[in-house]
Amino acid sequence: MLQNIIVYGAGGHAKAVIDTLEKDARYSIIGLLDDYKPAGSHYYGYEILGDETWLAAHKAKVSGGIVAVGDNWKRSQITASIRAIYPEFRFVTAIHPSASLARGADIGAGTVIMAGAVVNSDAAIGEHCVLYTHASVDHDCSVGSYVTFAPKAATGGNVKIDDYSVISMGAAVIHGITIGEHTVIGAGSTVLSHIPSYAIAYGTPTKVIRNRQIGESYL
């Protein structure tokens, strides 16, 4: 039996998440939650039910859901708000059928693995992460929570990426590298050495360009 879920978010990123959920075929999306679009309107074929406070009065209608907001920090704030309203809320994973998950791969709650993405043997992906189309995480990697891999971002094996960091479009991280928390690796970069926390870094080889603040926009 399909699980009745809600999706929080009604923007471009939400479209990609909804498509992944529909292809995953484990779920029935009963509607969307959003702070900016009026309740009763429709987006991408689904009704806007309200904002996250809707959950307090309708717990019996849903078995869980997912936050479909692209920015890592905003996604974490929304999940915290949902947990405050509905502590038992169950965040689901969304895995596109064309994604490849190897033996031993571990995927955290609330994470989205989109079309063509690869998670290789014994790699661990934390909670509420996003692997966009054709992103690749190789064997024995450790990825924290609220991490984003943009399309065609890739790592070698035994890479560690801490919470809230972003590997931008087409960036490559060689094996054995550590990238700290709240760090953004720019598009097309080649990471050949460890990158600290709270940094914006890009280039080939990748270098830290400046420091970054918690919650600073990158989209």
Explain this structure:
There is one protein chain. It is built from three helices and 24 strands. The protein has helices at 12-24, 54-57, 72-85; strands spanning 3-8, 27-33, 42-43, 46-50, 64-67, 94-95, 100-101, 106-107, 112-113, 118-119, 124-125, 130-131, 136-137, 142-143, 148-149, 154-155, 160-161, 166-167, 172-173, 178-179, 184-185, 190-191, 199-202, 207-211. The strands form five sheets. It has an eight-stranded mixed sheet, with helices on one face. The protein has 219 residues and is of the alpha/beta class. Helix content is 14%, strand content 31%. It starts with a strand and ends in an 8-residue tail after the last strand. The longest helix has 14 residues, at 72-85. Helix 1 (12-24) links the parallel strand 1 (3-8) and strand 2.
